[in-house]
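User: Teach me something about this protein's shape.
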Amino acid sequence: MPDPSAERDAVEAESAFSHPAVAPDATAAYGEHPDQVIDFFAPRDGRDRAPLVVVLHGGAWRAPYDRQHISPFADFLARRGFAVASVEYRRGGELPRPRGTEPVAGRWPETFDDVAAAMDLLPGLAREALPGADTRRIVVTGHSAGGHLALWAAARHVLTPDSAWHLPAAPALRGVVALAPIADFTAAEELGVCGGATAQLLGGKEHFDERRPYADPAALLPTGIATVLVQGRTDIVVPRAVAESYTDAAAKAGEPVWLTLLEDVGHFPLIDPASDACAVVAEEIEQLAY
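Assistant: First, the predicted structure itself:
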């Protein structure tokens, strides 16, 4: 008998990926690798001093899934009056693998190196590419694996000083809106999220315990930065239990984190410009930006 949850997820994914890629207004490099680039989208209403939304795409940190699939979402935010910076980063390679298996998820430490470098250089790059962007009002958002990276980018000051990614003070962000994020690595591994992608991101299960404190948002609390998680109740890709585990960890750390649960919504409507869920995401970003 067909699985209705899987059928629904397939329909939602088809809708989200049906939109053609949208070309950015400008692209800037933050490093020498071809994946070390940021696409910029100007606010479509020509607004001056528009808040800057940083978008980190998902795809389980795997190579086949790049920023092109989230460009319609970036354009959607630009049409809502935001300046948008969509960050590309190095993902898992296309190494030989058994037939029918997914590519390796992420690169250690390159995936984190890239996000850290992109965030550090972003204000200067944005001032050149989008002179109308207000880099004093930055909100970071990301979907799925990108939601993890958004939470991590906002928590680098919590890292111990021995980490190359450590910041001496909290980044100047208005907040984070993480969309169905892989926010708790222990919960994600227990649930087998994305075929064990979290352990792969850390370089394999043998490195999980050693590297998790440097990479897992649930281990990097409190941040002191306003944080909202948006999650579909019927998500079978990154189940709501992962987001709830993160919010529980935040509560234990004494930090309020808002979790917005959307009824009858799965994983992909959150970045689908045709969905009502995407409008909710824009409203959450707007609440923090202004």
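Now, about its shape. The longest strand covers residues 133-143. The chain is about 35% helix and 15% strand. If you'd like, I can walk through any region in more detail.
User: That's plenty for now, thanks!
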